[in-house]
Amino acid sequence: MSKTARSSILDLLAAGPVIGDGSLIAVLEKRGYVRAGYWTPEAVVTHPDAVKNLLKEYLWAGADVIQTPSFYSHDGRLNLLNEKGKLVDVTAAQINEAACKMAREVADEGNALVCAGFSPGISFQQNIGEEAARREFESQAKTFKEHEADIDFYLGEFFGYVEELEQCVDVMKTLKKPVACSMKIGAMGDYSGVTLEECAVKMANTGADMIGLNCYFDINTSLKSMKRIKKALDAEGLSPYLMCQPVAWMCPEAENNIKGVHALPEAPLGLDARVMTRFEAHAFARSAYEIGVNYIGGCCGCESHHIRAFAQEVNGDFTQFIFQRQIKLQVR
Ligand SMILES: [Zn+2]
User: Fold this and answer.
1) How many whole angstroms from 331 Cα to the centroid of ligand 1?
2) What DSSP character marks residue 189?
3) Predicted confidence (pLDDT) per residue in 154-201, tens digit
4) Is 145 exposed, middle or buried (0-12, 13-18, 19+ CB in 10 A)?
5) Is the pLDDT of residue 316 over 60?
6) CA of 300 to the centre of ligand 1 (A)
7) Which value, to the nearest 10 degrees, does the dihedral of the CA atoms of residues 247, 48, 40, 62 take?
8) Distance from Cα 164 to the centre of ligand 1, integer Å
């Protein structure tokens, strides 16, 4: 199937590997548009050109999917900033509305898909109760529902607790589009002691179409974890599509630390010397594909050249794919 026609994510996954986009918040922080430590995306409203240009970089590098720049965009997180005197003048709904429109505009330049991203709330970790946690996801879902014409599928990502992920998937499934979910965990399992294998089975049993890992761990640790996930799912006769979006920084000594890259003393702002090379990115994409990962993308620190390496490695028709994008835009 050609990747140049807008299609269902499930059709693309069935046809071959799908390339996700790269880091949003960490790259915008490096460029001056996001505050370190808070990691919220109000730049979507305050500096839309900067955010849009970053998404365009990913599209042109070869991403099949553009994610809405809505990470940590929920009122709970924004209110935390306000309580600390770091006033944010925009609401989560305003950010998410702009994020949907922006992602669709960029994706349409290259017939890519739009994935609307959910991220963990604050109620679960504060033990406020299941109802409160669910309301946070419903609040994110409300804006996405109003812009459902712009959205092709949903992704709940960056979960440290599989129980919270299950609540998020429950809400995402009410939106009646394909659903993906991923966790920021590694060899040690989740934050409440659920093993990596158990998390994989629980993720698959939510009924999500695609499950996997994102953030916190480097390409090599993530590959080891994805192998364990595949084996656990095979043993249970479960076969969701698999996704993997690791960080760009090589951090082997963090492999057995639940905090991943954030266990390193130089994290988060002194990691530049650890950025993976394009060759390493190529090797990761090849290995991921060979172990059965269908969706290959990047999380924190991954920039457009990494996405380009992933796409070049696994897209046999990459030259044709980019050529058709250029024809559509009548450039170069
Ligand atoms: Zn990340």
Assistant:
1) 33
2) B
3) 999 999 999 999 999 999 999 999 999 999 999 999 999 999 999 999
4) middle
5) yes
6) 4
7) -20
8) 18
- Amino acid identity, residue 278? R
**DSSP 8-state secondary structure symbol assigned to residue 211:** E
Residues 279 and 272: their CA atoms lie apart, in Å, by 17
Task: Give the closest residue to 206 by CA, choosing from 235, 158, 238.
Answer: 238
Instruction: For residue 142, report the distance from its CA to the centre of ligand 1, in Å.
Output: 24
243 beta partners: 212, 295
Q: Which pTM value belongs to this model?
A: 0.92
CATH number of 9-329: 3.20.20.330
| Domain map (residue ranges) of the chain | 9-329
Q: What phi and psi values does residue 142 have, to the nearest 5 degrees? A: -60, -45
Cα end-to-end distance, the chain, whole Å: 26
- How deeply is 36 buried, as exposed, middle or buried, from its count of CB atoms within 10 A (0-12, 13-18, 19+)? exposed
- Rounded to the nearest angstrom, the distance between the alpha carbon of 177 and the centre of ligand 1 is 24
Q: In the chain, what percentage of residues exceed pLDDT 70?
A: 92
What is the C-alpha separation between 67 and 25, in angstroms, rounded? Answer: 12
Distance 323 CA to ligand 1 centre (A): 31
Which run of H or of E encompasses 318?
helix 318-329
pLDDT of residue 126: 84
- Helical (H) or strand (E) element with 117: strand 113-118
- DSSP β-ladder status, 65-67 and 295-296: unpaired
How remote is the CA of residue 100 from the centroid of ligand 1, in Å?
A: 20
Would you state the structure tokens that stand for residue 30, as one six-digit string? Answer: 């490096």
**∠ at Cα 39 (35, 43), nearest 5°?**
70
